[in-house]
Design goal:
The chain has 154 residues and is mainly alpha-helical. Helices cover 54% and strands 0% of the residues.
Length: 154
């Protein structure tokens, strides 16, 4: 499979080992994991950062290698159940932040053709993601604009 905005192929990475149950060294109560996930979300962490925190720091000193194996639910599902989810999906939010940084860079450096193309590609990805999420996680009327993104993220 090729990359979206280049002519190169993607590099394949290693697969996660298949497992049906969490390892025995990571025996943590499901409720404790869910409470920690909600607590981290309220501190401002994104779902991917929450997974990393639980993997590295754990709950009550015991690492949680995989939240879905331990609880049967993904981090985003836990956040939805507890009404702690973000207004925007994480991938869309990250792309919007990148587009804002690129737009500010272009305002300071109008002759930078390489980053002008990077901005065009990023905004193209944003529009594609907005179409994907519209009606499900975003309003039907949602459209991307730089000003709207800047207002939402600041």
């Amino acid at each position: 499979m090729a990359r979206m905005h280049s002519r190169r192929r993607g590099s394949s990475g290693s697969d996660r080992p298949t497992a049906d149950e969490p390892p025995e060294w990571s025996e943590v109560d499901e409720d404790a994991i869910e409470d920690r996930v909600v607590e981290l979300a309220e501190e401002g962490y994104d779902p991917s950062q929450i997974g990393l925190k639980l993997r590295d720091e754990g709950v009550q000193g015991v690492p949680v290698p995989d939240v879905k194996l331990a609880t049967g639910k993904k981090v985003t599902e836990i956040l939805e159940e507890n009404d702690a989810e973000n207004e925007l999906p994480e991938d869309l939010r990250n792309l919007m932040e990148r587009a804002i940084r690129l737009r500010e860079h272009m305002d300071r450096n109008p002759g930078d053709a390489q980053n002008k193309r990077a901005l065009q590609n990023t905004e193209s990805k944003i529009r594609r993601l907005v179409d994907y999420y519209r009606g499900d996680k975003l309003d039907e009327e949602f459209t991307y604009s730089y000003e709207d993104a800047k207002d939402r993220l600041e």
